């Protein structure tokens, strides 16, 4: 089972999640819409992973904040993950977002607080097992510095492209690579 973990302010119906759902439909795929509260999002993901692991292998694909969550979960459960333009220090990069934040899926809003940043900090990983990761980065990411991911996961399998943006333009061309990585 492939679990796609969306980014900050997004949902399981967001653009990348919807594209991945189509591209990976034959692989066993879900993209849950997660709570904006980090502890609840992680609890939901842990429950899903634990349930699926009883019957099959589990793989993660995480984008942005979902990449940060995937890094934590991949270490906790010792499972492979594809990280797409991942947030490495979201407790710092999301600090300017404190206050009322829009949900990009339905244009509702929610309160983002300092307590949420502290929750994020509690999920930071140290010395990740680089063999479990495929890192997909675009240097043109306007929100996150791709070099932070390279520093966090040196020696991991990596695709680093010039240009692009935070959404990772052209992600569909890496579908087969992701599937092959999961099958290793």
Task: Give me some keywords for this one.
184 residues, alpha/beta, Rossmann fold
Q: Low-confidence runs (pLDDT<50, min 5 residues)?
A: none
Number of beta strands? 8
For the biggest sheet, the summary is: 6 strands, parallel
Which structural class do you get from the secondary structure elements? alpha/beta
Order of helices and strands: EHEHEHEHEEHEHEH
CATH architecture descriptor name: 3-Layer(aba) Sandwich
Q: Tell me, what's the shape? A: globular
Q: Order the strands across the largest sheet as they lie in space.
A: 2-1-3-4-7-8
Number of helices: 7
CATH topology name: Rossmann fold
pLDDT averaged residue by residue: 95
Helical coverage, percent range = 25-40%
Protein architecture, described:
There is one protein chain. The model has no long low-confidence stretch (mean pLDDT 95). By secondary structure, the chain is α/β, with parallel strands linked by helices. The radius of gyration is 15 Å and the shape is globular. It has a single domain, classed as 3-Layer(aba) Sandwich (Rossmann fold), CATH 3.40.50.1820. It has seven helices and eight strands; from the N terminus they run βαβαβαβαββαβαβα. It has helices at 15-23, 38-53, 65-77, 90-93, 114-121, 146-152, 175-183; strands at 2-5, 29-30, 59-63, 81-84, 99-102, 109-112, 133-138, 157-161. β7 (133-138), α6 and β8 (157-161) form a beta-alpha-beta unit. It has a six-stranded parallel β-sheet with strand order 2-1-3-4-7-8, with helices on both faces.
